[in-house]
Task: structure prediction
Amino acid sequence: MRKLREGLPLLPFLAVVVIFLIIPTVTVIVSSVYANGVFSFARIQALFSDTALAALGKSVLLSGSTAVIGAVLGAVLAWLIVSSPPTSMVRRAVISLCSVLAQFGGVALAFAFLATVGLNGVLTLWVQQVFGFNLAGSGWLYSLTGLILVYTYFQIPLMVIVFVPALEGLRDQWREAAVSLGASTWRYWREVAVPLLTPAFLGSTLLLFANAFAAYATAAALVSQGSPIVPLLIRSALTSEVVLGQSGFAYALALEMIVVVAVVMAAYSALVRRTARWLR
Amino acid sequence: MNKSLVAVSAASVLVLAGLIACAPPEKDNTGGETSSGVKVSEATSAADFGGMDALVEAAKKEGELNVIALPPDWANYGAIIKAFSDKYGIKVNSAQPDAASQDEINAASQQKGKSTAPDVFDLGQSVALANTSMFAPYKVATWDKIAAAYKDPNGAWVNDYGGYMSIGFDSAKVPPVTSVNDLLKPEYNGKVALNGDPTQAGAAFSGVLMVALSQGGSADDIAPGVEFFRKLKAAGNFLPVDPTPATIESGQTPVVIDWNYLNAGETKKLPSWQVVVPPDNAVAGYYYQAINKDAPHPAAARLWQEFLYSDEGQNLFAAGGVRPVRADTMMADGTLDKTVADKLPIIDGPVTVPSPDQTEKATKYLADNWAKAIG
Result:
């Protein structure tokens, strides 16, 4: 009874989880193998068609490359932020800016890039006028290259936000201890700081991967041809007025995404557990 | 723990019940009978009502008509709805004007039995042919004047209007386009757009088919069209941007492959916008008009059909730049307005309209190959 009373405040949260997470997930799993009273693996099999595999490959490439670029650049930026004193204006400004930019995805971000380096973008026109060089080329912004650039824009700030706490967890005493035992700065980094930070760094990279893998609105606003990545292929399967009856395929693709993200998040939580041991 | 699970389920049931309770009450008024004793929802011609006047009377009694996915600037629907409403004093409720064909069918299934369900459909080919079981057969007074190729023999659907696939271009920005092959020239670098993804949008599908015809393909063989777009992409000419009136006016998409009536609509806003229907590889596409068999206003739905296929309705379509289905016979007997008739493109060569089987085969090929070609 006491347990029940303690759990009561959590009820609304549980209701939300059930309605918006558990029910949709179960629906996706069931609908990808079962439709109109027939159980079949045909839709799962369709995941191995050329189109679906190519989309998965590009999704992984996009998420992987933006995760690595974002993680490396974000970690460097985070280190620069942490090395300035906690009261510094610049530090507080950069951290606030990162919190905002990490959430600045979707149509607004796509539009910002279109308006800057799109075919008629301000920068494109200016460079064309001054240097006679066409920055937008034949529309690279609307392809995978463009997506990598645009995704990196929200990946770096996210990395800063999740990585700053790990850097702040590096205690001065550890460095002092290493130095008093005769370690050079380089040796301190190589044998103390980097091994300590590696799990946090890899974990953040995985978080970035999942973040990019599931992003939809930015890509949807930029790319209108060929559905190169999985979220766009799901859109195409659901809304096509040419190829009908593909909603089962969309469910199968959604299941594929759930599996990929589940694997990534499992690896992430394992790494976080390792980091937590040091950063108490 | 188990108790809290029960509580959670109870809470979610309550939330769901609340959502359902918000829906408008169901209303069944499809059960009325005409003066000749036929159920209104099963009447297959005006004669079943006891003549046109009786149909008008029955429709006026219903007082409303629900239409869906009819943009006011598309095929002149704005003017058509107004003319219908003024003529018969029937209120037209236009829902989701920018919805896609599949949305119309979804709305009909989801709102089945409610007074807000759509009464009539205006659908693209594949969606229409996949859902004929939802249509109520009806033959309008002008039924015999519509060519057999444009109607279901039982009257489940009738083509209402259509057009030709065309290339629109901004003559102020690019040299004039005379044939599909011109598009590969370096002058069109980064300038050629297709209205949508052909595995998703009907207009883009017909665009690829038109290109296929120009490259030696046929309605049975769309592969040369995909190959052409691969070359267009490799040459850097293909622009992976979804063209809209905004991109056309701002000059982002100086060449657009789209239906001639949509391209022609741009000329009004951008005078240098010109439209070419490639004369040797014309592809025509028609929309499908049908009555929802569960229409909440069955008589008004039938009167709407009569109006669309009357001389008045067909002329209104023509004024919107589309080709009404009775265009040929109306030109012959002189009932088509001279001023609008002159604006309709005249095609001397063969006109290709893919059959449902050909469309299905071609879409399958596109689903497997399009992304590879332009990726």
Q: What stands out?
A: The longest helix of chain A spans residues 50-83. Chain A has 13 helices and two strands. Chain A has one domain: 41-278. The CA atoms of residues 210 and 261 of chain A lie 6 Å apart.
